From TrEMBL:
<feature type="domain" description="Phosphodiester glycosidase">
    <location>
        <begin position="304"/>
        <end position="469"/>
    </location>
</feature>
<dbReference type="GO" id="GO:0016798">
    <property type="term" value="F:hydrolase activity, acting on glycosyl bonds"/>
</dbReference>
<dbReference type="InterPro" id="IPR018711">
    <property type="entry name" value="NAGPA"/>
</dbReference>
<keyword id="KW-0378">Hydrolase</keyword>
<dbReference type="Pfam" id="PF09992">
    <property type="entry name" value="NAGPA"/>
</dbReference>
<keyword id="KW-0326">Glycosidase</keyword>
<protein>
    <submittedName>
        <fullName>Phosphodiester glycosidase family protein</fullName>
    </submittedName>
</protein>
Amino acid sequence: MFPFSYAVKKASASTPVVYWEGMQLVKGQVGKVDILKPINLWKRENNKLKFVRVLKPGEAYRVYRYDAAFGGQYGVGGQYFVTNMKGYVQYKTPSKLKLKLVNPELYGTKLTLGTVTQEQTAVLAPGVTQSKLSVKGSKGNQEIYKLDVDQKSSQISFETSLAKDQMIGFETVNSMAHREEDEGKYVIAGVNGDYFDSNGAPTDLTVHNGELVTTNTTPVNERTIFGVSFSGKAMIGNPEILLSVSANGQKPYLINSVNKRRFAGHLVLYTSYFASNTMTNELGTEVVLSNVTGQLNGNGQITATVKEVIIGKGSAALKPGEFILSGHAAGSDYLKSLKAGDSVTINASYDKPEWDRVQQAIGGRYHLVKGGNAKTFNIAGAHPRTAIGIKEDGSVFAVVIDGRRAQSKGVTLTDLAKVMKDFGAVEAITFDGGGSSTMVTRKQGETTTSVVNNPSDGRERNVSNSLLIIARRQAGELHRLLLNPEEVTLFAGASYKDLKIAAKGVDKNNNTVSLKDRIVWTSNVGKFNSDGSFTASGIPGKGTITGTSGTVAGSVSVHITNVLDSIKVPKDTIIVDKNGTAAIPASGYHGGMDVVTDPAAFTYSVSDNLGTVENGIFKASGKDGIGKITISHGKVSAEIKVITGNPGPVIIEDFEGDISGWQVSGARYESVKVSPESVYVKEGKRSLKVAYNFIGTTGTSGVYASKKEPIPVMGAPKKIGMWVYGDNKGHWLRSQLKDAAGKEIQLDFTKNLDWTGWKYVEADIPAGLTAPYVLEIPVRYMQVSDEHKNRGQIFIDQIQAVYE
């Protein structure tokens, strides 16, 4: 296939699949040429043109470069060129967004906030793209999450969602997104919405699917609203809706608010969006309206019939299909004039006509960018933020910036305004921020959304409402195979029972589609064996693993390495009977990733002639002893202590390492303390000092020395022993052991410590316990008699497990 062919090239695993003009964009491509009239295809050799063939009208070719040589030519791959002749060719170029998706290194985002150190982009669905940007600036690191929405896509729309589908209450953005999924509609992404009160009610204007949910609360100069018109046009402004009611054709009466708390003298309209009832007191009148027709929104009229007039009760029940007018004082007096059967008309209009019949609206707060100018705010504090902006072409983007952590400090409102302008906003506002800032997306091949940012609470916060991006499109035909992970590192010559590559079929909109044909796996850097395992090539390099199902395929980038950074083992000690066997699992790491567990990749050695290792299995000799198994590859290695047969005592704590993890507790004492000791030492350079003062206490006193993590005891020893430098104070010395079943056992070394100086003591481990064990409290030094309370200190060294 010629390098300039219009046929689709396979995208790399890290490159998103992007379509433009009926073709798949590939890395390095900047545009295409359509052939209008017959024209020569040239090949450049030694700075001369060599004729290849005549291109025919109707053909089209990818363009990778353009230069002025030979009168100006388009590079269509390799050394092949087409001359720029007016009337013979037509050149087209994709949008900058699409070019950036395929060539992020060339079209990366520039921000005044700092340097973009990493930018990842994924197409969630046609018309919806999600990006994550890591930024390093003078004010700290930032992590920015961005959603770009192409309003020209007829299948993509915005939709507001209320927590629990009503005004009063809380719910997470992700939960709202999952709940909005239904037949013929799926949620692509979403962000948190308006600020809210203590009951979870959003603060300002909310419109859901063309129906007014609630009116504004915030003063006009302190709020901003995002809306989408019935034609799909995004708007940012500050509309106020005006409502009135008239009965039997009489003079209209002002309605102060919709689904808000009823204040003194007000008349409020309640719908079933509010709660189960109006939550009002008895100091007013409430009128139930039935036979409601029309949609409550601007430029509209509602007609209804008075069903019931309720005086002096409050909290009237809100039912689907019914409205309630609730008034206090003057509002109450007006409602008292109504009676059952009266005809009622409710009129609504916005003070800004372009908002009439708005389909979706959600409140915000600060107008960050207005008329293309980023505003400056005299409000201190860098916090997590959520914002939404509209570009000059009418497309919309939402941004969430994490904060309050080292990886992302958060931004001030002034910096947020700059970010939104940098992204191209001509209008932009904030939604609620702080711990509420949340973005959810439906990743390629997934059936539901998940949280993509890192909310500052450490978990997703319950909020009042959200703004969701909806697609109304059913899953189509199988389009491609989505493989995860996109890239793997394997070890040269190693075999893998399971590569753990997950495969999903998706349609053009990244909806999951079931696979009718089994997946056939192939690779150019190894082979798949008859049992399904994979053996990597013995030569380091790069290649692919490809999965094919029917006519679709997907690939994973593969890096073959023969270098390990480290080797890790899950156990530091094993105990094996004489002539017994035990598996020696090991994992080799490269670049921080576990790349090989195949025993054939390692070299093994065993000390003291205690046995041999073949294919990762240790076989003990007939010798009792303690030694080590070394697992190595190249310059890296790991060690496992091995105990074979009956080795006698095995030291499980010698206090020679870091003993900062030791801690002290006790019961009924004046003071207790543990500390390292370098003078009174049995072996090595250090022991453990245990000091106590029981004077003046009543009841059983004790000092307990333990590690933060219990000391593991491998196998099933018969005894626990230790060396003790006694203080001849007559106290009771014990240890606390726990077996694998969680049973705790006290081991008694002596009930009367009556010596001074070093002495070795042992305690039997009772039969019937489940090995392995842990030593929970190695030292419990106690006194039960009030007549023998005193103070002193003992020293502990060489705690050991005895297997004889």
